[in-house]
Amino acid sequence: MTRLITHLRHVDLAVPDFAEQRDFYAGVWGLEEVATDTGLSFLAAVGSPEQYVVRIREAAEKRLDLVAFGAETPADVDALAARMRAADVRIVREPGTLDTPGGGYGFRFFDLDGRTIEISADVAVRAHRKLEEKESVPVRLSHVVLNSPDLAATRAWYERHLDFALSDTLSSPYMGDVMHFMRCNPQHHSLAIAKGPHASLHHLSFELRGVDEYMRGSGRIIRSGAKKVWGPGRHLAGDNTFTYFLDPHGNTVEYTTELERLDEDTWHPSVYDFSQPEVTDQWGTANPMNELVAKESFNDVDRGVFVAPPV
After folding, report:
1. Who has the most CB within 10 Å: 32, 53, 75, 87?
2. Structural domains of the chain sorted by starting position, each given as residue range(s) with its CATH number in brackets
3. pLDDT in tens, 82-127
């Protein structure tokens, strides 16, 4: 399948306590600050060629600033922008040169729920390295999960406008569909849409080198005093490990590894009943999924809906 979107680049967060958030991600979480500006911090993953995977901005209110995806060429960026205009999607920054680390060419628009999305190409590759055994810091940004009050409509929007494909669905006899796992490449999901009471960030996930590094990293975060929400365990959909924590501003962040890669020509989506404990955790090692665990990932109402970030 030919897609104009290639991969997830970075997710940008705004918070009132900039210093605390910066210290968490550049410290215990294991990212590396690669650039700063007034009230801005750009954080990279050691093993990733992306210039940065998280941007933190100082702001009066907590919000999700934007989610950025990559495209192969500037021509693909222009083609996507033309597609958005034809569909009356609101563009908030026309295609042009980017002034963020690595430069490139991109544009921004609002998705169905009012989140700012950026698409870019020709961003310079950052010098990076292969992580060694026992290095328990993120290799790269794995995926992002977004809460939506209209799960089906948001899934359809991403399928129609950005060519995302459905990999699997979580459902239950009591709640119906609760999460759609969406892919833009053979990785099981770079994006997932979760059923929530409002538009917000559900969680950010970071890939570690392997299971041993994932466990060492999870233990390091637990010992730091950060609140653990759920895990360690292993999901059925995507077959990836998970441990979820809260960052200092209440955003859920995940350590994971071994997320499944699919043969897209033969893959058929499944619907998994997440009320079955082996679906949420194959290992049976995590604390049980319950309403309190789920509520943490609802997050606060996003104050950035249909308001483009200033930078």
Report:
1. 53
2. 5-121 (3.10.180.10), 140-296 (3.10.180.10)
3. 999 999 999 999 999 999 999 999 999 999 999 999 999 999 999 9
